[in-house]
Structure formats: structure tokens, C-alpha cells
Amino acid sequence: MFELNGKHYELIENFKEGFQEDAIRDRYADILGKYDYIVGDWGYEQLRMKGFYHDRNAKAPVDSKFSTVQDYLLEHCNFGCAYFVLKKVTK
Question: 17-56 pLDDT, tens per residue?
Fold first, then answer.
């Protein structure tokens, strides 16, 4: 479990040790709290974070649904970059 601004997350993927708690806390923006998943990727020693919704969220744009995460990683991230995926959990 990992907490960011009162919201709890579970680390569900940590590719090439992309999960770095201090960097995530420094880079986190409140806008990410509305998403069900947060994907963080590293390029040129910079962390980017993007939010995604559950696939069952009918109001979410298709490219913001969790099923498109792999497409996002392939199309918008450096090939083979370190990344992580956090899933919001409710207590």
C-alpha cells in the first residue's frame, strides 16, 4: 500500500524499478486523485505521470481507460523505459 494525499494505492506493476516513492510524492498533482490508476514513466531522468479510469467507466474517453495503458507505453514513452502502475484502492 502507498498513500498519496489521503488516497491509497496498490503498486500493481514495477517495470525496471520505475517506482521511486520520493520522486512520486514530489511529482504528484491533485488532479491525479480523480483517476483509478496512475501510470508513471521515466524518460531522460524525468518522471511523467498520467491517470487512467476503470474500463467500466462509461463517461471516460477511450484513450483514458485502463485497457489502453500498453498502447500509451508503446506510443508515448521511451522504448523500454522504467515505469510503474498504481491502482487506487478504497478502504
Answer: 999 999 999 999 999 999 999 999 998 889 999 999 999 9
Give φ, ψ of 83 to 5 degrees: -155, 170
CA 14 centroid distance within chain = 11
Give percent of the chain with pLDDT exceeding 70: 99
Q: Which three cell numbers stand for residue 73?
A: 507505453
Top CATH class, 2-89: alpha beta
* pTM of the predicted structure, to 2 decimals: 0.92
Side chain identity, residue 5: N
**Contact in structure between 9 and 88 (CB atoms under 8 Å):** yes
Q: 478502504: which residue's cell?
A: 91
Q: Are 21 and 12 in contact (CB under 8 A)?
A: no
Closest C-alpha to 43, from 77, 4, 85: 77
For residue 73, the Cα-to-chain-centroid distance in whole angstroms is: 11
- Sequence spans of domains, the chain: 2-89
